[in-house]
Design goal:
Blueprint lengths: L3 E6 L3 H12 L4 E7 L2 H11 L3 E4 L8 H11 L4 E6 L4 H9 L3 E4 L3 H13 L7 H5 L17
Parallel strand pairs: 1-2, 1-3, 3-4, 4-5
């Protein structure tokens, strides 16, 4: 079985350590590198080509959104998953518009592992809390209605 190779980019050391420890408990996951800022995340992703880049939105030196844009160019096969405390709908929409998945940090305990499994299978994932609010990865039509499934 091929392991899901993951880069974790988070500027808060304690949170990054927590996330990495949770991911390392899953036998099919391998945390291959860690970054403390967006620029480092882009460089490490280009160098290591992980399966998934797990990014915070509020990274220093280069925001998570800007890092994701660069990663999509430099490592097009790397899937992007945002793990953020950011609840601003415009920021969440910008992240989802990149074709990324989005997990709220407050949902990490229940959603992180299922999200990584889903994304590794080529699916997208949105935190349960966001899904309950009607925010999905589906494109929104001009009328404001969600596209039919």
């Amino acid at each position: 079985m091929c392991k899901v190779r993951i880069l974790v980019a988070e500027d808060l050391d304690l949170w990054r350590n927590y996330v990495c420890s949770v991911l390392r408990k899953e036998p099919s996951f391998e945390v291959i590198c860690e970054a403390a800022d967006g620029l480092q995340a882009v460089q490490l992703t280009e160098q290591h080509q992980p399966t998934i880049a797990l990014l915070d939105i509020g990274l220093p030196r280069l925001s998570g959104i800007d890092a994701a844009r660069s990663i999509k160019t430099l490592a097009p096969n790397t899937a992007i998953v945002f793990l953020s405390g950011q609840h601003d709908i415009n920021i969440i929409q910008a992240a989802l518009d990149l074709g990324s998945s989005y997990i709220l940090k407050s949902d990490a305990a229940s959603d992180l592992i299922p999200a990584i499994h889903s994304v590794a299978k080529g699916e997208t994932f949105v935190s349960r809390q966001l899904a309950r609010l009607g925010i999905t990865t589906k494109r929104v039509e001009m009328t404001g209605m969600e596209a039919p499934e």
